[in-house]
Amino acid sequence: RQAEVPRRIWPDDARTAASLRRHYRPRKAASSDQDSDLSRRTDQISRRRPQAIELGSGKIINLKNGRVGGHTQSKLVEKICREAGIPVWCGGMLESGIGRAHNIAISTLAGYTMPGDVSASKRYWHEDIIEPAVEVSVDGTITAPDGPGIGFEIKKDRIEKATVRKCDVQ
Questions:
Q1: Are 128 and 134 in contact (CB under 8 A)?
Q2: What are the CA-CA distances from residue 77 to residues 2, 53, 111, 127 (Å)?
């Protein structure tokens, strides 16, 4: 089990998370959803890092790439956690193949030492918008592509078919 503190209740409170950690002892880990609290901006991460780590507000961090503002922020949080010896795992948010590809890529960083919840395309989508589809092996792993970019081709025709409305911004 894992506890996640909703950001809207305790927006920037590492002390509350640490208090919850002391009183709630789940079998696996407690997370204070530090990913959203820690990574609003780079300077905030640097300022909050010592407080969150010193207080022990999370023993394992569930880092959601899309929630923290993308790869730059995710890489910073991963580096801080890795240097502090705090394991990270990649949390998904029911992404299409494009978001899933980004999760796979970010999960290859050294600090991601826990299994994440990135799943196969077919788990949520009859037809995904990338190819090849993300597949999970029998041992529960996903092979990260080694090509440039996200490593998957985007099915532009599938996106066009699913598009409900378009807006050109100039």
A1: yes
A2: 19, 12, 9, 33
Residue pair 39/72 in contact (Cβ under 8 Å)? The answer is no
Cis amide prior to 132 (ω within 30 degrees): yes
- Report the first-to-last Cα separation within the chain, whole angstroms: 47
Instruction: Write out pLDDT tens, residues 135-159.
Output: 999 998 999 998 788 999 999 999 9
**Which amino acid makes up residue 160?**
E
Contact 158, 133 (CB under 8 A): no
Among all chains, which residue has been given the structure tokens 């207080």? 55
Cα distance between residue 8 and residue 154, in whole Å: 35
**pTM: predicted TM-score of the whole model, two decimal places:** 0.72
